[in-house]
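User: Fold this; tokens only.

Assistant: Input:
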Amino acid sequence: MNQTWLIIDAPFLAHRAYHSVGKLADGTVFGFLQSAASLQDLFGTDRIVFCWDAGTSLRERLCPTYKAARKKRYAAMSEEERLNSDEFRRKCLLLRTCYLQMFEYQNNLWAEGFEADDVIASVVHNSLPPGDDAAIISSDHDMWQLLGPRVVCHDPARGRTTTAGSFREAWGLEPQQWADIVAISGCAGDSVKGVKGVGTKKAAAYLRGDMPRRGIIYNRLESRISKVLWRDNL
């Protein structure tokens, strides 16, 4: 009998707990553990994997501007805001290194230089037992690249589950092409530049061949989509 594994974007779940009950004493820890238990009940499984960020991301070495806007926001914070941010990171470290072990969660993963989504991808591609299913718990649309016959993505913030089929219906492309979409459109949250004036919907239309072969946007796409663009964003 196949099992369902929850593969959790742990920083996402911690942020969600922090913004809901984090102001209470140990609220972030409580909210995180409560959410994990609720997700186990929702999917009817005791198979759970927590995936974490760890240290400096290798992506920053490849792209020095990566998440530059987030660093600027941190630098511009007030002393109180910075203390709150640092305290949140401390709680995440305690969850990662202490509390999850205390509650006997065995699969608590991170790797120096990599982010949680890198670890999630590795688990899906390299560690998922044959025949088992997986539900990736995250609000990060980049996880859509991992959708497949046995892999879904669930966003508890929106109460929405995305499957490979629903992705194809919505975008008219294969889930693996989400990387192509983002390479073209960029990602403001991660300070990754794309083609000016092109969001995810226009990028998808271009990849599907639905975009009229005329106009400023089409010509801009044709001129900018080059080996340089793909190398920078992929």
